[in-house]
Amino acid sequence: MAAASALRLCGLEVSFEASKALRTLPTLDGFEKVLDEVLAHVLGKPATADSARSLARVTSLDTTTLGALFTGLGWIVRTCIRSSLKSKALHAELTDCRVHAPFVQPILDAVERG
Fold first, then answer.
1. Does residue 70 contact residue 47 with C-beta atoms inside 8 Å?
2. In the chain, where do the E strands start and end?
3. Do 79 and 112 meet the contact criterion of CB atoms below 8 Å apart?
4. Most C-beta atoms within 10 A of its C-beta, which of 16, 31, 44, 85?
């Protein structure tokens, strides 16, 4: 029996949390705030209980969904930062990976800052 083809980003199979994050993005409020916190975390700033509560208020997500979103978006951002691909190729990778279209450019901007 053939397995369903998995989503890939920069040659890596998309993690479980990243898959969940991709499903959450189209209905997400407060994406910019989440992305800022994720990038700060990727760059070494520890997440705090206060920042988690703030994100929960902004996004109206339960803690399980917010945790998967944060972890999954972190995986996506780290994977793109570690990639040697240029912005145009990363744009294509994120689109192929089914990142909700309005969020592709903000993720690319975060990768550039990272």
1. yes
2. 8-9, 12-13
3. no
4. 31
Q: Model's pTM, two decimal places?
A: 0.90
pLDDT score at 5: 59
Q: Residue 79: which residues within 8 A CB-CB, separation 6 or more?
A: 9, 10, 12
C-alpha distances (whole Å) from 32 to each of 1, 24, 57, 59, 78 are 41, 14, 14, 10, 17
Number of Cβ within a 10 Å radius of residue 63:
11
Q: DSSP secondary structure string, 49-69?
A: HHHHHHHHHHH---HHHHHHH
What backbone torsions phi and psi does residue 42 show, to the nearest 5 degrees?
A: -60, -35
Q: For residues 5 and 48, give the distance between their C-alpha atoms in angstroms, rounded to a whole number.
A: 36
pLDDT band at 114, cuts 50/70/90?
confident
Q: Which residues pair with 13 in a beta bridge?
A: 8
pLDDT tens digits, 59-94 = 999 999 999 999 999 999 999 999 999 999 999 999
